[in-house]
Each structure stands twice: as structure tokens, then as C-alpha cells.
């Protein structure tokens, strides 16, 4: 027997090439199809309660409360009455005012505490800064459900029982830790040289911070504003535990406790109340989400 | 102070400025407000929670009388508490396993390019970006006993109503999602998955974009297909970031009471009660602060465990 001789594999025929191309294409189209299918399924699942919410807002009673009608259609013409009812007949406007008051004051308190703290931890604390920063961030993860019972006593001792001011005092206890951590990320990315140069030019350290670090960190400060605002709007447990009179309630508890009365639900107005707040916050949050995640991943992801 | 200040003034002001310019003085000073806030409104309440749990304090009688571990004993002796404890763990574990699987798929979908991606991304993130109380309210209405649009679809599909292939329970005109204990539990689970899926997904997406391009290129050159790359490259490289995503998911579902409070109120017959909601009903609505504090403290060991794991992950990424 002769030694085996290397033989090149036969060249594929045109038909075979065409078949392979077809297979490849079919695979890719199948892939695209699966992609769109998955994207649609996830979007539907996520948006379902919101879509139903929005559809409900504009429905008339005769349409909404007839289980035989197709709920996905407007069997009677859409109406704006439910939104009018919300503002004219309920305390919704008060809830919004309370929420905005709390949110704005919490943002201010958070900035006043978190900016100096983050600067101190990144620039002045040396090697302890990072560890201390992580410790402060972990405080953010201590849940309201663990603290609300003793805090209800603290709030009462401060004379803030049943007042929207109790929330102004308590909310920074979770916005400050989170925002300090976010800002540390920003300050770390600013080179030392800039403020050093300002100090050599005769500014005090505070002056240098004011004139160099803060203007450069405006995106970071804006992130802090957005997140202390959003986290305040999201909070539910403390508000539920501390505030019981309707004139002092914020949106998240006012809508869910005051507008639901016994078995009589005004679902259209209720859904309008939820959607009018939920959607603007979602848009705002969405615009800054990447920075939020950068804070959450604690540098575990390096871009 | 402006740049035009005469030199003499500068010299006169030096001593005070030097003090504030010293890192050892300015550092703690700037940190002070934050530390005071955390100690006063997180540290003190945490200590108070432990004191309360060991005392007979109520809303009416605020004096702290030490009663030892009686509150914990009473809590464990209560059948609702045991149900709540079990629910808390089951809801957390099952929802986070589901989130881990779904988030990996969703992250793959969102890392591809397709038409309408921005809209899909916005919609998919909605459950996380809207206040949970309002999202839960949306679910309450979506799963209404009479007017649920899901029931309407099921009726049209023939799955609900007389002759339903799903069994006798589904023969009525409505599924009664929140009236059956098992369906109510499934609902709470689903809402938790719905709410934490976006967070896990965006964390994974951040991890995906951080996989170095040369690794992907090398795999492509070597002819590794989609699934090979998934198993040998993406998943191993993403493991630490998946751990981060799951840890946050655990914190947010384990300690949550808003979903249960709004969607089921712990019912029917306490079948969906969790530790946090039970602590609220006993401590705030029932007025027994000591009992409530003891119940809430059962959350603590798991939180400490999660914090420890986060620290390990953070340290690992520091040394890499």
C-alpha cells in the first residue's frame, strides 16, 4: 500500500455555495426574528400595567365598567373629565405640592452634605477615603423597612409627627450616602493639577474648589440633583409610617391611601394620578440612568 | 477673595487660611455633616431597633422595659410570622433566579442593534424608573377581580370560562388573581421580577460593554459561534457583574413591603405577608413597636451577608 498522499478537499460546487449562503441567511433572518420577538415580549411585559393605566385614564364610566366590552378599545369617546375630577374634587394638588416641597429641600440638604463629603473622601482622606466611601455607600442599602419603627419615635420626639417636614429630615439619610458615592466617582476623574494651580495662584483650598472643581463637576452635581429628586419621589415606607393626615401626604402615599376609599375606586382618576407623576419621573430617571448604574456597580465595570 | 486683593491682606489672612488648607483639618470638617446625618438617622435608629426588640414599648406606652427575647419568641410562635418568613425567602430566591435568567436574555437583546431600540429600552426600564407604589397600583388595577384586561384576553382565548381546559377553578368569568392564595403569591413574585429585571439588565449591559473588543475579535477569528462565545466568554467574564446585579436584587426584594402592601395587603388570609409588611402591620398599625422592631430585625442577618459579599466583590475589582 502506498503512503497516503495529502489530497486537497474538493472545491465546493456553485450549488453547494449557494446552499450555504441560503442557510446562513436563513439563520440570520431567524436570529433577527427571535430578536424582535424577544424585544416585543419584554417591552409588553414591562409596559403592561402602564399601558392599561393610560388607556383607563380617558375612559368613561359606561365604557370602563362593562366587562362585556373590549377593554382595549374606546367604545365610548375618550374624555378628559377624569383628570379634571382629580384636580377639582381630590387633594391631588396638595399631594403634588407637598412632594415638590420635600423633594426640593431634600435636594438642597443632599448637595450641602454630599459635595463636601465626597471631596473630602477623594482628596483629603488619603487611602482611607475609598474604604470610608464604600462604607457610606453601604449605608444606602440599609432599608427603610428596618428603620421605620424606631424612626417613627425619633420623628415624634422631634415634634414632626404627622408632618411633611419629618420627610424633609429623614429622606437625606438615604440620598446623602448614595450621592456622596456618586460624586466620589466624579471628583476622582478630575485631575489634581487644576486645583493645585489655583492654589499656587493664591486661592485658598476652599476658593480653589469653588472656582475649579465645582464648575467642572456640574454634570455630577446635576446627577445628584436628579437622583435625590427621584429617590424622594420613589420613597413610600417612611411616608406611610410617619404621615397620616391627608393634607400632609406626598403623592406616593396620598394616591394609594386617600384616593382609594373602601370599595369605591375611581379608577380613571386614580390612574391619572399615578401616570401624571410616574411618566415625568421615568423620563428624568431614564436620561441619567447610566450614571446611576456607574455608581451601583462600584467600579466593578471599567469602561 | 478675588485675585486683586493686596498682598498685605493675603499675608494677614494666612493663619486662618493655613488652618483650613490643612487636609487634616478640612477633611474631617467637610465630612462632618454627612457623618452626623448617618449616625443620627441610621446609626441611632439601628441601635433603637435592637433596644425596642428587647422591650415592651408600644405607641401608647413609650417607656422601655426590658423583656429579654420575648418579642422574638412571640414572633416565631405566630403562624403568620412563619408564613411571612417563608414568603420573604421564597419571593426573593425565586424572583432573583428568574431575573438572572431573563436579565441575561434581555441584556443580549438590548446589546444588539435594531429598529425601535430606544423605545424598547425606555419601556423595559419603566418598572424601575417609576415609583414602585404607582407601578404596584397599576398592577392592582390590571389584575382587578372583575375588570382585568388579562381576564378578557383569557376569556377570548377560551382559557377562562365554562369548559376551560385549565380546570375547574378557571370556569368562572374571572381568574381572581388576588383572591386565591397561590395566584396572589404568583402575582407578588411576578411584580418583583417585573420591578428588578430592569436594574439587573442595565447592570449586565454595563458589564457587556466592558468586555474588551480584542477578546471578541479573537473569538470571531477562531470561528467561535454565538453559543460558544456565550458559554466560554460572556458568561465567565460577566460572572462578577452578575453577582453584583443579584445582590442588589436581593436587597430590594428581600426588604420590600410596598408591593405586598399595595397589591395584596398581605392577603388573602396573610398568604402573601412578608417580614417587612408584617412588621408594619404589627409595629405601626398594631402599635406594638417592640414586636414590629423584632420582626424587622429578622431582615438584618441577610443584609449583613449581602454587604459582606459586596465588599469582597469591591475588593476583588480593586486589586485587578
Secondary structure topology:
The complex is a heterodimer of chains A (303) and B (320).
Chain A: H1 14-57, H2 61-64, H3 81-89, H4 92-124, H5 128-140, H6 144-157, H7 164-170, H8 172-188, H9 192-200, H10 205-216, H11 218-234, H12 237-242, H13 251-258, E1 260-261, E2 264-265, H14 267-287, H15 289-296
Antiparallel strand pairs in A: 1-2
Helix pairs in contact in A: 1-14, 3-14, 4-5, 4-7, 4-8, 4-11, 4-13, 5-8, 8-11, 8-15, 9-10, 13-14
Chain B: H1 7-21, H2 23-53, H3 70-77, H4 79-111, H5 117-129, H6 132-142, H7 149-156, H8 181-209, H9 213-221, H10 226-254, H11 258-264, H12 275-285, H13 289-297, H14 300-319
Helix pairs in contact in B: 2-13, 3-13, 4-8, 4-10, 5-8, 6-11, 8-10, 8-11, 10-14, 12-13
Structure report:
Chain A has helices spanning 14-57, 61-64, 81-89, 92-124, 128-140, 144-157, 164-170, 172-188, 192-200, 205-216, 218-234, 237-242, 251-258, 267-287, 289-296, and strands at residues 260-261, 264-265. Chain A has 303 residues and is mostly helical. Chain A has three domains: 14-56; 58-84, no CATH class; 90-296, Orthogonal Bundle (MetI-like fold). Chain A has a two-stranded antiparallel ribbon. In chain A, a hairpin with a 2-residue loop joins β1 (260-261) and β2. Chain B is mainly α and 320 residues long. Chain B folds into two domains: 1-44, no CATH class; 54-133 and 184-319, MetI-like (MetI-like fold), CATH 1.10.3720.10. Chain B has 14 helices and no strands. In chain B, α5 packs across α8 (181-209), α6 runs parallel beside α11 and α8 (181-209) packs antiparallel against α11. Chain B is flat and about 70 Å long. The chains are: A mainly alpha (303), B mainly alpha (320). At the A-B interface, α1, α4, α5, α6 and α8 of A face α1, α2, α4, α5 and α6 of B.
Amino acid at each position: 500500500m502506498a503512503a497516503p498522499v495529502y489530497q486537497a478537499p474538493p472545491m465546493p460546487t456553485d450549488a453547494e455555495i449557494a446552499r450555504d449562503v441560503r442557510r446562513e441567511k436563513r439563520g440570520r433572518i431567524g436570529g433577527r426574528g427571535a430578536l424582535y420577538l424577544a424585544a416585543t415580549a419584554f417591552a409588553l411585559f414591562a409596559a403592561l400595567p402602564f399601558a392599561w393605566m393610560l388607556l383607563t385614564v380617558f375612559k368613561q364610566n359606561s365604557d370602563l365598567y362593562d366587562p362585556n366590552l373590549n377593554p382595549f378599545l374606546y367604545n365610548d369617546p375618550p374624555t378628559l373629565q377624569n383628570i379634571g375630577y382629580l384636580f377639582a374634587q381630590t387633594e391631588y394638588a396638595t399631594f403634588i405640592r407637598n412632594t415638590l416641597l420635600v423633594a426640593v429641600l431634600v435636594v438642597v440638604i443632599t448637595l450641602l452634605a454630599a459635595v463636601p463629603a465626597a471631596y473630602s473622601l477623594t482628596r483629603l482622606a488619603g487611602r482611607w477615603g475609598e474604604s470610608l466611601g464604600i462604607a457610606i455607600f453601604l449605608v444606602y442599602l440599609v432599608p427603610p423597612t428596618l428603620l421605620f419603627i424606631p424612626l417613627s419615635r425619633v420623628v415624634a420626639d422631634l415634634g414632626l409627627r404627622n408632618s411633611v417636614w419629618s420627610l424633609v429630615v429623614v429622606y437625606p439619610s438615604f440620598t446623602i450616602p448614595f450621592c456622596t458615592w456618586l460624586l466620589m466617582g466624579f471628583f476622582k476623574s478630575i485631575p489634581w493639577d487644576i486645583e493645585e494651580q489655583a492654589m499656587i495662584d493664591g486661592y485658598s483650598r476652599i476658593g480653589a474648589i469653588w472656582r475649579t472643581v465645582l464648575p467642572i463637576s456640574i454634570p455630577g452635581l446635576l446627577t445628584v440633583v436628579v437622583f435625590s429628586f427621584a429617590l424622594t419621589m420613589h420613597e413610600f415606607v417612611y411616608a406611610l409610617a410617619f404621615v397620616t393626615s391627608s393634607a400632609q401626604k406626598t403623592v406616593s402615599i396620598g394616591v394609594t391611601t386617600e384616593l382609594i376609599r373602601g370599595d369605591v375606586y375611581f379608577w380613571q382618576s386614580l390612574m391619572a394620578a399615578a401616570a401624571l407623576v410616574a411618566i415625568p419621573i421615568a423620563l428624568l430617571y431614564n436620561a441619567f440612568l447610566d450614571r446611576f448604574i456607574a455608581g451601583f456597580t462600584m467600579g466593578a465595570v471599567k469602561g | 477673595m478675588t485675585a486683586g486683593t493686596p498682598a498685605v491682606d493675603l499675608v494677614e489672612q494666612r493663619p486662618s487660611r493655613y488652618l483650613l488648607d490643612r487636609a487634616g483639618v478640612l477633611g474631617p470638617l467637610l465630612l462632618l455633616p454627612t457623618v452626623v446625618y448617618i449616625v443620627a438617622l441610621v446609626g441611632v435608629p439601628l441601635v433603637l431597633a435592637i433596644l425596642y426588640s428587647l422591650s415592651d414599648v408600644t405607641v401608647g406606652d413609650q417607656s422601655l422595659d426590658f423583656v429579654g427575647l420575648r418579642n422574638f419568641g412571640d414572633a416565631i410562635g405566630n403562624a403568620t410570622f412563619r408564613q411571612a418568613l417563608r414568603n420573604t425567602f421564597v419571593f426573593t430566591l425565586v424572583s432573583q433566579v428568574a431575573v438572572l435568567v431573563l436579565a441575561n436574555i434581555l441584556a443580549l437583546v438590548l446589546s444588539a442593534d435594531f429598529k425601535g431600540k430606544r423605545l424598547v429600552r425606555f419601556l423595559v426600564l419603566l418598572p424601575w424608573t417609576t415609583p414602585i407604589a404607582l407601578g404596584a397600583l397599576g398592577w392592582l388595577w390590571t389584575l382587578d377581580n372583575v375588570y382585568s384586561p388579562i381576564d378578557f384576553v383569557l376569556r377570548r382565548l377560551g382559557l377562562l370560562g365554562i369548559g376551560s381546559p385549565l380546570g375547574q377553578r378557571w370556569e368562572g368569568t374571572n381568574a381572581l388573581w388576588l383572591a386565591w392564595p397561590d395566584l396572589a403569591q404568583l402575582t407578588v413574585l411576578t411584580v418583583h421580577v417585573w420591578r428588578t429585571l430592569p436594574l439587573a439588565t442595565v447592570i449586565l449591559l454595563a458589564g457587556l460593554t466592558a468586555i474588551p473588543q480584542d477578546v471578541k475579535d479573537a473569538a470571531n477569528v477562531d470561528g467561535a459561534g454565538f453559543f460558544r462565545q456565550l458559554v466560554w466568554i460572556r458568561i465567565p467574564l460577566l460572572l462578577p457583574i452578575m453577582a453584583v446585579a443579584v445582590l442588589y436584587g436581593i436587597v430590594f426584594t428581600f426588604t420590600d413591603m410596598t408591593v405586598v402592601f399595595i397589591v395584596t395587603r398581605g392577603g388573602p388570609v396573610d398568604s402573601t405577608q412578608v417580614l417587612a409588611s408584617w412588621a408594619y402591620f404589627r409595629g405601626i398599625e398594631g402599635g406594638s413597636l417592640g414586636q414590629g422592631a423584632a420582626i424587622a430585625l429578622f431582615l438584618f442577618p441577610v443584609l449583613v451577608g449581602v454587604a459582606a459579599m459586596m465588599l469582597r466583590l469591591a475588593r476583588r475589582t480593586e486589586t485587578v
